[in-house]
Amino acid sequence: MHRVVGPLLAVTVALVLADSAVVTLALPDILLHLDTTVAEVAWVLISFNLVLGLVVVPTAVGLKRVDPRYLGAVGIAGFAAASAWCAVAQSIEVLIAARCLQALGGALVLVGCLELLVSVYGERRGIATWITAGVIGTATGPFAGGLLTQAFSWQSIFYVQVPIAALAVPAALAVRAAMPPQTEPVRHNPAVRPNLTLAFLSAALTAALFLLVLLLVDGWQHSPAAAAITVSVVPVAALAARPLARLLTPTSEVEIGVGCFLIAGGLVGLALLPDAELAWTIAPQALIGLGLGLTLDQLTVQAMHLRVPRVEHASWTIGARHLGVVIGLAILTPVFVGDLQDAQVPAQEAITSLVLDAPITAQEKVALARSLGEELADQQEQVPNLHRAFDQTEFEPGSRAAAAQLERDLSDQVERAVTRAFRDSFLVGAGLALLGLLVVVFPRRRA
Amino acid sequence: MRRLGLPIVAVLLVAAVLGVQLAYGGASYEPLPSADPCAERTVDSQSDGIDGLTERLVLHGVDNAGCILGVSREEFVLDLAQNGQPTDDQVDALREGLLQAVGEMEEDGTMPPASELVDDALDQAELDGWLETLIRAIPDSAVDAALKTDDVLARAIEDLDLRELLSNVDDQDQLNAQVEAAVTQAVKDSLIDRVRNLL
Fold this sequence. Notes:
heterodimer, A: about 450 residues, mainly alpha, Growth Hormone, Chain: A, B: about 200 residues, about 0% strand, elongated, MFS_trans_sf (chain A), MFS (chain A), membrane (chain A), transmembrane helix (chain A)
């Protein structure tokens, strides 16, 4: 049992932090299944991050005298129960409420497991394991959620968490000689600079992951599995960051600054996609993944370095990250929703232009325009299904090749409009990453 | 070097990614912009005869109407399609645009002579068999001397109730009936005027 205690606790930490973005790829399915609105379904994501961001520091401060074994076990059990509740939710309100409870359990898990991992592995390795598990969870959440949604259902995202978390409850209780609650006479203030940078970067990474999967699934109409495989570039590149840093041996400040720059560069790359092909997103995502791998763990280490109480400072990093995600969503959602609405006009004009000039007969143009008009009216807030409009229009044999080409051209115009609609949001995300860089390079006050 | 190695690599990576994306048109991946409606545009039609002529006339006409109203032809067409009732300005601009289109087609030589349209018109019209045979027997030169296509079209456009025409776009039979009535009247008026001028 002792051998699996550490890994089980680390996996649970990763699960909690993966939950921050794990439902991103499942949002379109949840929207349909629970018959809700875009604004409401966004709260499935926001509620978890908001509650976790708000309660984690008070939890660490208020429960610092509680035995971390009980804290961890109760948190894991609560997290597992809330996950099961999420899976069986039949309305959006219930799902959001369950996500809030999940975040409450998650806060206890993160606070409790830090002390438990330190007990299992010792201070240095325990903290490193806690941080690494968090980075892996954050980076792989959307990927895992997308695959599960495609293979089974959105509910499976929550079902799979239950047995893993359930196993971790005895693991938490089995930790021998858990560290006694800390009662240090000294109490350091939170590290403002790394926590602020973490918040900015989390907001920027929200742009990268949340907006990218929306673009892939809702915009370019790829399956959640295809989108999940595509966004797996981020965690893979994040793994490559550490060997690169070891090779070039930069200082931690340089590493963090470069990480911010790479995330900003990757987001600018996503804003300047030359085509609606998945392959074009790979290089910008690789930059973001490298940046993520260089920054998140270093910033967390910096925020916690030699600061006591340890768990309190660890919780500040979690709070900063998740409130950063909420702020990112709050800033980016109106920008991208507005741009998506604005994109309808140029898309409709481009479609009109191509239909007017298409080498098909006038009667076919009128009939097609009627079908396209109905399709556009039916598909408010969603990318229109042009294929259905073409299916409903009868073309003479001599016009069929031209009609097929026209359908491809119109789809290309829609993809152009949708991709263009995301540009400003990705650029805002890049701006947030650069704000993180500014915080890093801003001259320090001399002691 | 410890400070510069990683930043140099990062700058090179970002520059390479953005450079390739910009080289492949990353900054201009946008929907097709609408063309200037006042600029000359070549229009084509897949149909022959009256259908082809009507399509070319309408395509030129909406461009001209857009130019008059200061909007693109796409904006003008979408506005007509999406807002049930066209405004007086839109109806006036469309009529003026169609009349301008007749003049432009006459000027650039793309307006077919009336004789080229007679067979097509007779196919579409439900005339008595003897009368149809008699009209088909009239030599082309006589038809062209009696009827000028641009004159007939201009009269038909002046006569057409464009507001009703736009509301009939979805109903092919109603549309045909309305246009046929206007063109028949225009042919009669044109012939009467020709006879009057001869006398």
